[in-house]
Amino acid sequence: MQTPMRNAPNNDAPPTELIALPEVIKITGFKTTKIYDMVNKGAFPKKVHLGTRSVRWVKAEVLQWATDQMAAREQRA
After folding, report:
1. pLDDT (tens digit, 9 = 90+) per residue, 14-36?
2. How many CB atoms neighbour CB 60 within 10 A?
3. Domain housing 49
4. Whole-model pTM over 0.85
5. Burial call 14-43: b when 16+ CB within 10 Å, e when fewer
6. Is 56 exposed, middle or buried (0-12, 13-18, 19+ CB in 10 A)?
């Protein structure tokens, strides 16, 4: 499930897209425990808390993380 959200205060900015864990898993290929471990270690984008039992991630941050991983792979090769 994707939740678009408007940035504040500039309403001319494109909406920030928030994604749920299943999409994060799809993008990264990691399971839930690995994602949360990486978040806790500061190695993955932080969660956005929407309620007591609801979190999402900023899609652009997750995609940037994936791009950074691919760039690091190229530098190691």
Report:
1. 789 999 999 999 999 999 999 99
2. 13
3. 2-76
4. no
5. eebbbbebebbeeebeeeeeebeeebeeee
6. buried
